[in-house]
């Protein structure tokens, strides 16, 4: 027989682990490895070295934040719910940062020479950010809902 507390504790952690893995490897793959998207970022000859520096900084930062979140999620002992919340907050930082970056003057989600398809009228990066932030919100709300049901 399955313990309901174990199920609700596992589902949020699995959602957060999924987001952590995407956070760790997403920017590296998209901005540096996958040719179609790397050509728009680190392999874009039109980008000055300082712009590439900041993209590389984002890649490393995302990897580190995902790693910190995974360490929090893998830890055992007391404070599991607070570790989950902390991990979700850490994971939300780069995705909220992406959404906040478009509010700055003279920024754009893509360079004008590239034509990326949209999905539901959103640039794929923005859609991914919204999906991952939604998963983190669900991960945080699931344990609270289970506690209220008891």
UniProtKB/TrEMBL annotation:
InterPro entries from the UniProt entry = DUF6640
Query: Is Transmembrane helix among the key words of this record?
Result: yes
Sorted alphabetically, which keywords does the UniProt record give? Membrane, Transmembrane, Transmembrane helix
- Please identify the protein, giving its name as recorded: Uncharacterized protein
Q: Provide the transmembrane region boundaries.
A: 14-36, 56-75, 84-104, 124-144
